[in-house]
Amino acid sequence: MRQPKGGQAGAQGPWLFGVRHHGPGSARSVRAALDAVQPGAVLIEGPPEADELAHLAADMDMRPPVALLAHATDDPGRSAFWPFAEFSPEWVALRWALDRGVPVHFIDLPATHTLALRAADEAEGDDTGGTDGEKAEEAGKEEQPARPHPEALRVDPLAVLADAAGYDDPERWWEDVVEHRGGTGAGAEDDAGEAALASFRALGEAMGALREEFGDGGHTRDLVREAHMRVRLKAARKEHGDSVAVICGAWHVPALALRTTLTADRALLKGLPKVKTGLTWVPWTHRRLARAGGYGAGIASPGWYGHLFSAPDRPVERWLTKVAGLLREEGRQVSSAHVIEAVRLAGALATLRGRPLAGLTETTDAIRSVLCEGSDVPLALIEDRLTVGDVLGEVPAAAPAVPLQRDLERLQRSLRFKPEAADREIDLDLRKENDAARSRLLHRLSLLRVDWGTPAAARSGTGTFRESWRLSWQPELAVRVAEAGVWGTTVASAATAKARSDATSATHLADITALAELCLRAELSEALPDVMRALADRAALDTDVGHLAQALPALVRSVRYGDVRGTGTAALAEVAAGLAERVFVGLPPACTGLDTDGAQELRRQIEAVHTAVGLLADTAAAQVDGAGLRQRWRAVLRNIADRESAPGVVRGRAVRLLLDEGTLDEDAVARRMGLALSPGTLPPDAAAWIEGFLGGAAGGGMLLVHDERLRQLLDAWLASVPATAFTDVLPLLRRTFSAYESGVRRTLGELVRRGGRAAGSPAPGTEALPGTPADGFGPGLDPERADAVTEVLRHLLGDLVAVGAGDGGPG
């Protein structure tokens, strides 16, 4: 192909429009340029397999941001995205062509090769993660899935051009040169078109100079991609003549203008690996367009760029009005005067900084100073809600999808459960049919690793009939759904097959018990027998008491869950009881030879087993001897409490659990505490016992408040700790007492300051004084201070008596 001057096609075409992906200035320039040249065909950088899906972009139900998703049909997890926003130049070009009936084609390397090359690079250990469409350079060049070799130096075109122009920020340079100047659409249409064409010529010349200096810039895979683009361009010229417009990353423009032979380009493409692929449209989000979300071609502020595209006139004023509306919704006082002053400040800052128009930096500085009064807290809200945003696109039902996706969409519609990109929490009452169905769906999706929702702490009530979820639908979940499609065509059948497979492949007992609990919550009755068989087999073979202790709580929760909902759980209860007995036998010997971390872990396991035994005894009374189970567990706790070789934190926790159960009285507890804090015990061991006894459970502080003997024992021991050991003991004690409420800590401090007297006892020397307050905190009645207010009280009471007498009341 003849290379025109500056790397840009001539006035008669073909026209090469080099853009920056997701740049609103580039998008407006593309629209103006296409209106000016009126091409007979439009070629867009993207996978050619998408040609058959291009017409869906004009569907009334298609709302960007959206993305083309390509995945290997035999391995849906191997995938790539090509995102489009409303302000993406490629999307503008696509809609321009569809609206006018102009042929449109995608010309990048086919996805069948892209995914295969990525797999080959991963096999060689040379992959950066992410997808091909997600890794792109700021000038609009999509980066390849393969990571360059260490000796290859990647060139950032925007950074080089910005540095040459004297800018230290490529983003700011791009805004000044493109977003705020060329192709804005100001003035007559002819002027806008000429300005757009001029800007493309200038950018093409700049990229041509960079390619002459840096070659491929370290992007070695681009040579293959650009060869395929040239092949497709030549085919389009053969069909449509020179009236062809190409919209591609600006980095590719010089390569597409090169004079090469068709034979040479096809030689570069010969022998490329292939995989069978499927393509469709999927919803995307502004948050996933953001660079902070891991998207290599992302922009820092998709919400701001979307605003610039939709409001080319007076963008600063319109933006600050949006910000003011958001702050008012959050209860902040923002007036019109605030907005006016912020607009003036943003303009002044732009002038001082030599910018043609206030950009995001200037508007943010003005917002912080005027609307947020210097606080970054509301500014973070603006950044999240507006600068980035939670816009979620929509795709029409006609878009291809795996059967599982169709079933999921049907369930979402029937349950009135629309996916949203923004994080939100919902509370489900499982006694309501629709809420119960929503819960089943979320649990089944969790089993399929489609994490639309994650369980959250219930905000109202803790009963079994309530669940709280935190929901957020992210675009990559479309890939998870495609992956899960190998397990079945419906959510229920896929989740059942996945549960059976997980039960067979699980290597840890705790994994199987958690799976059993999930099957009950998801109501996968067909999978539960297989899970139970795997659970029984694994439990019989596992001899690690730690594994058994970890598995028991989830299994007991499963028994309780099924019992509340009327599900048959007799087999689960029997397995849980057998598991508990094995824990009882193995736990005491496991308490020896532990380091600090091991002791803390065992303490947590003992607490979990204690709770599980109580639940099992209460909810499975028909299947197990609840009273006998409790009695045997208490005997285990006594064994651990009196076991000198056990760590102090474990012995202290065992004593505390026995006290809470009513098995040990206060005398027995005081005796054990006295032994643990005796002079023969090393201070760190004694502090660990205290942590186990008083920490980690509710009521530890109140126990000291009301039990003077325990408090005095602890106070006497603490006073006797040598100075050399105090620094070792202090962190343990601080960790224990910092968990108490501030009121409890204050009460304890006051009691210690008072010398340990119990609440309600009179201060020494004041026992005989009448009217001594019995609040336990004051030093008793001070006669001198009381006399100081006697005269004032006499006057007040006298006035009240006089008023009462004048009103006819009692004298």
Automatic annotation (TrEMBL):
<protein>
    <submittedName>
        <fullName>Uncharacterized protein</fullName>
    </submittedName>
</protein>
<feature type="region of interest" description="Disordered">
    <location>
        <begin position="122"/>
        <end position="153"/>
    </location>
</feature>
<dbReference type="Pfam" id="PF18934">
    <property type="entry name" value="DUF5682"/>
</dbReference>
<feature type="region of interest" description="Disordered">
    <location>
        <begin position="753"/>
        <end position="784"/>
    </location>
</feature>
<feature type="compositionally biased region" description="Basic and acidic residues">
    <location>
        <begin position="132"/>
        <end position="153"/>
    </location>
</feature>
<dbReference type="InterPro" id="IPR050458">
    <property type="entry name" value="LolB"/>
</dbReference>
<dbReference type="InterPro" id="IPR043737">
    <property type="entry name" value="DUF5682"/>
</dbReference>
